[in-house]
């Protein structure tokens, strides 16, 4: 007799991260930090090598205390995980049952779909306006029975955000028993005056959580580390469903050093500010439509024409050793997502797109 998985699991298309770069190529497909990681975090990671025979602190207390101090929040209301991806999955495991409704914006992060499908829930995508989440369509999709609404703000892969007043309007008009998950993975790159990471909303409204990551501004994508801030009752539930040692010891040490290295964060932010503006101005100047971004990547649109399409551009870039992210899985077949790299990478991708435009 053949062992069968739970119904619906074989319908899931596994998440595919940005393509790895072959030797000698430049990887601009995964929104990694162009400056690498904080040297203080790297040193803490190396020093952890002397303690690899020990189990980590199951509650990641040292890391939670450091996050709490730097963010000005209660460490007891923080849960750490193996990337924010794990925390999103734990939320689904804790609160979703087969048939429940999950809502996301049209071009929401693909992990939300995986969370819903893994739990047998129904996923509803709300139309966006100009590649930006639309609170009215999210509320219409949620209705009176949505169990979870996921909102990445800023959003990946579009790079857009909605202001604090709209996030508040979303929370205020959702049913009280609908969980709003604010995915703020790119929050450190944003300095728009009307933006909020959502941390204050967690304190003001029930059934609201924020997830954050060490993969972007901190440059720790390789150690898989993230955290969630939420009401005490929800945090308690997530602790009950997570693994007892879900964050490894080197990650705890590296994350503790990284969250305290504000100088590296500022340096990363300054680099991104400079080169994000460069990419948007230069690529836009070549005649391509570029969606305004507040993240560490740009969304570039191509015409749906043979020889000029996003797929053609992707092949052209690959031939020149530049690996970017095609977006067919997101329903954006005519766009490419390009990560902000170091100066050489940024100039090379502009030169390659200029050559492609002239072919």
What's the main sheet like? Answer: 7 strands, mixed
Q: If you average the pLDDT, what whole number results?
A: 95
The portion of residues forming beta strands comes to 15-25%
Question: What order do the strands of the largest sheet run in, or round the barrel if closed?
Answer: 2-8-7-6-5-3-4
In the CATH hierarchy, the third-tier topology of the largest domain is known as Aspartate Aminotransferase, domain 2
Regions with little confidence, pLDDT below 50 for 5+ residues:
none
> What characteristic shape results from the CA principal axes?
globular
Return the CATH class of the largest domain.
Alpha Beta
Instruction: Name the CATH architecture of the largest domain.
Output: 3-Layer(aba) Sandwich
Distance between the termini: 58 Å
The CATH superfamily of the largest domain is identified as Type I PLP-dependent aspartate aminotransferase-like (Major domain)
| DSSP helical segment count | 12
Total beta strands:
13
Number of domains: 2
General description of the model:
- The chain is of the alpha/beta class and 359 residues long.
- It has two domains: 9-36 and 263-357, Aspartate Aminotransferase, domain 1 (Alpha-Beta Complex); 39-261, 3-Layer(aba) Sandwich (Aspartate Aminotransferase, domain 2).
- It is built from twelve helices and 13 strands.
- The protein has helices at 39-47, 61-71, 83-95, 110-118, 135-142, 164-173, 199-204, 232-241, 249-260, 262-285, 310-319, 343-357, and strands at residues 26-27, 78-81, 101-105, 122-126, 146-152, 179-183, 208-213, 226-229, 289-291, 297-301, 322-323, 325-326, 335-339.
- The strands form three sheets. A seven-stranded mixed beta sheet has the order 2-8-7-6-5-3-4, sandwiched between helices. A four-stranded antiparallel beta sheet has the order 9-10-13-12, covered by helices on one side.
- Helix 7 (199-204) links the parallel strand 6 (179-183) and strand 7.
- The radius of gyration is 20 Å and the shape is globular.
- The mean pLDDT is 95.
């Amino acid at each position: 007799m053949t062992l069968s998985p739970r119904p619906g699991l074989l319908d899931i298309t596994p998440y595919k991260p940005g393509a790895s770069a072959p030797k000698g190529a430049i990887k601009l497909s995964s929104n990694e930090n162009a400056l690498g990681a904080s040297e203080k975090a790297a040193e803490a990671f190396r020093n952890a090598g002397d303690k690899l025979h020990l189990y980590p602190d199951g509650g990641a207390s040292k890391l939670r205390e450091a996050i709490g101090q730097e963010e000005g929040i209660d460490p007891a209301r923080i849960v750490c995980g193996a990337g924010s991806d794990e925390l999103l999955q734990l939320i689904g495991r804790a609160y979703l049952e087969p048939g429940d409704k999950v809502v996301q914006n049209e071009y929401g992060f693909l992990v939300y779909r995986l969370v819903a499908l893994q739990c047998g829930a129904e996923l509803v995508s709300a139309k966006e306006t100009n590649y930006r989440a639309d609170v009215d369509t999210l509320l219409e999709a949620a209705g009176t029975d949505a169990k979870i609404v996921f909102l990445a703000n800023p959003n990946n892969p579009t790079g857009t955000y909605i202001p604090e007043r709209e996030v508040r309007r979303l929370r205020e008009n959702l049913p009280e028993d609908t969980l709003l998950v604010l995915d703020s993975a790119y929050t450190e790159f944003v300095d728009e005056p009307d933006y909020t990471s959502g941390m204050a909303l967690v304190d003001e409204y029930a059934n609201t959580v924020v997830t954050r990551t060490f993969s972007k501004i901190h440059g720790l994508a390789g150690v898989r580390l993230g955290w969630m801030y939420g009401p005490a009752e929800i945090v308690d539930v997530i602790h009950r469903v997570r693994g007892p040692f879900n964050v490894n010891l080197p990650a705890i040490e590296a994350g503790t050093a990284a969250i305290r290295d504000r100088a590296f964060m500022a340096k990363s932010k300054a680099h991104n500010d400079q080169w994000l503006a460069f990419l948007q101005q230069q690529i836009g100047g070549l005649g391509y439509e570029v969606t305004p971004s507040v993240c560490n990547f740009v969304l570039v649109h191509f015409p749906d024409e043979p020889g000029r399409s996003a797929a053609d551009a992707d092949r052209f870039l690959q031939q020149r050793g530049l690996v970017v992210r095609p977006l067919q899985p997101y329903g954006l077949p005519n766009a490419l997502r390009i990560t902000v790299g170091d100066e050489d990478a940024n100039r090379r991708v502009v030169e390659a797109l200029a050559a492609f435009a002239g072919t």
